[in-house]
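Quick one, T. Sequence first:
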Amino acid sequence: MTLSTYLHFNGNCREAFEFYRSVFGGEFAIMQTFGDASTDIGVPEAEHDNIMHVSYPIGSSMLMGSDVPSTFGSVKNVGDNFSITYASSSKEETDTLFAKVSAGGVVTMPLEDVFWGAYFGSCTDKFGVNWMFNCDPES
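Structure tokens:
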């Protein structure tokens, strides 16, 4: 299991992560655009070059991020544009922890099998903290 920080941007994710890489060095583990995704996710063609997901290892940690497509809403407040990401080892663990963390909060995306091959869901806990749960059975 790992705990990572996930940052959300309004179209400048690539610029931010290129800046972080210029500071810390190294390479991105993953950088995918919305154009790389399936066409049924509802992102306007003008935003296909925006970042759908980037993973950037810094030391023993992973900094991740994405742009928020205009069709999904936008980042409300810079400074609140992050989620804590929990990567679990099983669907059962994911279900249990997701239920506990989301209790009294808001489920923003129910847990489900997603197109990138993981079991994923997101919520905001009762304290206003955003969480994402990801179980990749192949990891």
